[in-house]
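Structure tokens please, single chain.
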Amino acid sequence: MSDPKQPPSYPAIRLLAEKGDLLAIVIALAPLCFGIWAIAAGYGWLWMVVALLAAAVLWLILRSYVEVLRVLSDTLMPR
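Here you go.
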């Protein structure tokens, strides 16, 4: 049980605030891997274009989430 005098540490928020840029890139690579697989499997180039767009949108969403999380953690979490 945690000590009531110590504020909570929020390890998941700290991890995302510190490693969020790398995680956003790694997660955004998943649609690109799908696009490469789709081309190799013979589904056509359209899937690669869709995968590129999906990767860009996913990276942008995750990156903005990390920025908002950093602002919140800087202003609301004790150090």
